[in-house]
Records
---
Amino acid sequence: MSARGGMALATRSDVSSTPRVIRVALLGEANEPLRRLLEDVLRDGVVRCELVPARTTVADAAVVMVAWGEEARTIAAARAEAADIPLLAILPFGDDRLVALVLSCGARAWYGLDSPLALLRSRLVTLASPDAPDEAEPT
């Protein structure tokens, strides 16, 4: 509250001093490399990654590494493990067919390992936001 009874506005320094925390559940078998990747990507001071158990209601997003040829099985297993959590599939590369397949199997977003890391951060932040839209097509 300000001295005049109104709400005080946060300054840019107030906002940037506290990083946004995204609670991420890691699914599948490649958890250690995935954990390191997410910690590296989300270590910019604006966003911080907090890893949480997959079978929890507090996760903002779930992430699974998808191997070539295992797309449908991997996404189905991830959906079974974390049914209500928005799912981001990490793919070996951003092939249109592969992207369409994982999105049709239940992933809400995707990231290709051949893409810039800033895109992974952006997609995780968007996915973890309330009312995040599903990705309709590869970009």
---
Amino acid sequence: MYLTLVLFNALVTAAYLVLCSKVMKESGLSPNATIAAVHLPAAALLAIPAFLQPHGRFAVSGAVLSWLAITSGLKLLSKELAFFGYANTDVADVTVWSAFIPIFGLLFGVVMLNERVAPVELLGTLIVCVSVYLLFLKRDAARGPLGFLSPFFALGRGPVLAAVLSVVPIALASVYMKKSALVMGELPFSFVSTLLIGLGAAVIESPRPAAYRGVPTLGLLGIAALFALAQASWVALMTHERVAHTVAFQPLGIVFQMALAYAFLGERDTPVKRLACGTGIVAGSALLHLGGR
């Protein structure tokens, strides 16, 4: 059941992100406007099961409210950075950096939750880093001594740099997410967190109401439904397993996103190389998973 939920979450998350990238590139919708247009309807969808859940707990302590606020703020910051990347470059160049989320999740789990690191997790970390390096290594790298530094030059591109910076906030948010969801319940937390992120993005975008013109309403409602499923399933996974163990599965979505971007967005740049590097990332993440057991 757990692995089935992991695969389901990876697939719906990949679909929602690729479709968001498609909408932003075709309609010119800004990252914040997209976040608001997806999260607010998703919060409405999540509200129904959240209030019907018999064990939902909306009366929480000040500490839990602070955890919830931190989680929502960090996730909004991460989404703004990542969506900027999705709007301005290939999906593969953005999603690959999510491979570092389990690594930072492992680090924060150690620091904040006293979780231990196994040697196999260190090996998995090394494999992920090498795979990402090879993905950005240019074909003509051997022609000059600086060619082997080309993956680092890629960080100078705004959308790629934004994708890299989006990793740390979401990894840290994973820890606070688990702490909040354990107290509030999975669905109530999913609803409140999604609502706060949507409202935050809407407030940021409020000085530019014209940004919503020409928005494909039905399309965004469909994306919102996918996100609601992704959010609820992810919180369920995070609640019932170690942080490092659960986030180790997140790079599975990288392969799904690359495949969907190839099929629906026409991103056909070195698909074999991307698939091979994506497989390496998944292999490294599998070692992170094994160490987390």
---
Amino acid sequence: MSATKPVSVLIMDNDYYALQWIGGLIMRDPRTTACGLCENLDDFYKIAQFRRPDSALLDVDTGLDGMDLAQLMNVFFERSPGCKLICISNGASVAMIETSYNAGAQGFLFKSEIRLGLVTAILLALQGRFVVTRGIQELLGSHGNSYIRKTLQVLTTWQPNPNLTPQLQAALMLRLLHGMHSASAAKQLYLQPGTIEKYVSTGYDILASCELSDHDFEIGVNLDLLSPEERALVLFTAIPAKSSYD
């Protein structure tokens, strides 16, 4: 995939802190942009109709306002046809996953598993596969619809670059994902600002030395066109995009 502009993403989650974390990750990644953060379905529908996002993330655990999932999704697609809708959840039944699939969802993800692989999931969903985390695949197991199992693209769990020490990882997390400058990150990690700058610089160098391509990873952007910080974020959060089928 070669992105020409950031993918617009609409997010609905009535957990305020989860919503802010997801929204922050989407906004900081150069491949995506958040066109709306919603804590209720009314706002979700209104923004979907007005902004026509490329993709949407829907928390299906709560906030369905008495509607079943299929009905909710039908209303959404009436307002934003063509949008790639991905369901996110802390827990789900086989019936809920099958309902989402049959109603036109493009993925189903466990929040606890998706972590920093969320943007990769969105990019893969835009390509037409039904994207799931490992737990969803295991939940379907031998009980789910066999056709659905054959169409899954199972995300590999995100793992940090093995060449990054825990100290480098911590500094990069604060800089890349929270936007902290050295002084703030230093207070958080009980270090000197100069040490943070050294850790960040070393981390950037290690990430830049990675030889990643869309053949193995869903990069979705020309890395040469990005700033050093944007490039580091894409490489830091990269996960293999290989398909895994039951």
